[in-house]
Amino acid sequence: MEHVVWARDLAQRLLEEPLPRRWAHTQGVAGQAATLVPLLGDDTDLVTAAAWLHDIGYSPALAVTGFHPLDGARYLRDVEKADERLCSLVAHHSGAWVEAGERGLQDELVEEFAFPPAHLLDALTYSDMTTGPDGTRLPVERRLAEILERYAPGDIVHRSITRSRLALTASVHAVEGRLSRAMRPE
């Protein structure tokens, strides 16, 4: 739990004032991650901490490459000396390697940060892709449509989401299925 509190405080410091809407989204993503105890057990705190930190790379104080997963993960690794698993979740969240390819940063991303275990990355992706920009829950299809509406068709983010849409949707549906099975009475 101490990692979750640290992550929340760090994210708040980096996002609340300069990016209030991103902060609202982050709060919703973390709240969603915290509900995944039936699936994640002891890893819930790790995924919840990653949810608090997944978008810190948007902070003007951290933006270096303009690619928020890499900027955030590098900050966590280099400045905060954070756990390697946490850094890798932030680096690879929500189809980041597709956007990294669009930006010419895929080799750097993969060389610097190992892929996290799939079930943990799916859980973080689920939390992110079912939370709107204002922090409200919404279906993955609506979330993806909302992102595509915000970015013009030629934009890197639009192209990346279009390319990763099926994988993102599959991650969310996989978590929903596992969560449904975990919640069934025996």
Describe the structure.
The relative contact order is 0.13. The longest helix has 28 residues, at 156-183. By secondary structure, this protein is mainly alpha-helical. The protein is built from eleven helices and no strands. The model has no long low-confidence stretch (mean pLDDT 96). Helix 4 (44-53) crosses helix 6, helix 7 (96-103) packs across helix 8 and helix 7 (96-103) runs antiparallel to helix 11.
Summarize it.
This protein is an all-alpha fold and 186 residues long. It has helices spanning 2-15, 20-34, 37-40, 44-53, 68-78, 84-92, 96-103, 106-112, 118-129, 140-150, 156-183.
Q: Could you name the key traits of this structure?
A:
single chain, 186 residues, mainly alpha, 11 helices, 69% helix
Oligomer category: single chain
Report how far apart the termini are: 29 Å
Mean pLDDT: 96
- Write down the overall geometry: globular
Instruction: Briefly note the structural class of the backbone.
Output: mainly alpha
Characterize the main sheet.
none
Estimate what percentage of residues fall within beta strands.
under 5%
- Cα gyration radius (Å): 15 Å
Number of helices: 11
Helix content: 55-70%
What is the β-strand count?
Answer: 0
Segments where pLDDT lies below 50 for 5+ residues?
none
| N to C succession of SSEs | HHHHHHHHHHH
